UniProtKB/TrEMBL annotation:
Biological-process GO terms, alphabetical: L-valine transmembrane transport
Cellular location(s): Cell membrane
Membrane-spanning parts: 12-32, 52-77, 135-155, 161-178, 185-203, 209-227
Keyword Cell membrane attributed: yes
GO cellular component: plasma membrane
Lineage: Bacteria, Bacillati, Bacillota, Clostridia, Eubacteriales
Protein name (Swiss-Prot/TrEMBL): Inner membrane protein YgaZ
Coiled-coil annotated residue ranges, if any: none
Pfam families: AzlC
UniProt keyword annotations, A-Z: Cell membrane, Membrane, Transmembrane, Transmembrane helix, Transport
Topology relative to the membrane: Multi-pass membrane protein
Family statement drawn from the similarity comment of this UniProt entry: Belongs to the AzlC family.
InterPro entries according to UniProt: Brnchd-chn_aa_trnsp_permease
Amino acid sequence: MQKHELQQGIKDSIPIILGYLPLGFAFGVLANEAGMSILQATTMSILCFTGAGQYVAIGIIQAGGAIFTVIMANILLNLRYSLFSTSLVPYLKGHVPTALGSLLSYGLTDETYAVAMNRYQEHAPTASYMAGLNLSAHLGWISSTLLGAVLGGYIGNTDRFGLDFALPAMYTCLLIFMLRDKSDVIVAISSAFFCLLIGYFMPAAMANMFNIIIATVIAASLGVLISERD
């Protein structure tokens, strides 16, 4: 394992971890309120590692929904990762062994994807970097969940702390880091526009599942057209 690449991956994960701390903590508190034990909440973060999906799961559990509903909601909500992983293949191919890359990709999230793609523009991917980035981010999420689950009984409502602002703030910062030229700005703005447009016209239940995926496909296609014309 390349020590420098591993250290760089850990270093690049720090902003992600800082964003995960309040979100994972809030999830741990909500899981506690939903009747989950500390072990159950922590295990869920270990096995699932999808912030949005875990929050949806808690909401369904609190509403008395079936486990099948939780599973299907998470599958639909996280379909976007099939697009993320597909776009990473050209970068990883020839640099990271397929089996190892598949294993490390378990830690793929919106944030680790953005950070990794930003680095891969100028540096060749390595398994060591992926390990440092993805595993550190995952450990940060697990630790914050554990802390929230332990202290959940003493916190109560987390909304008054403004913890829900951490995720959009982190996404905004990551987006800014990814913008390199005019075409990037056009794709970013168009994806946001289509996402809002689809969400407005599509029924809420369906929009929550599909608007990001549809908007991503449209904006990515637009990006390809712009690149070919340039």
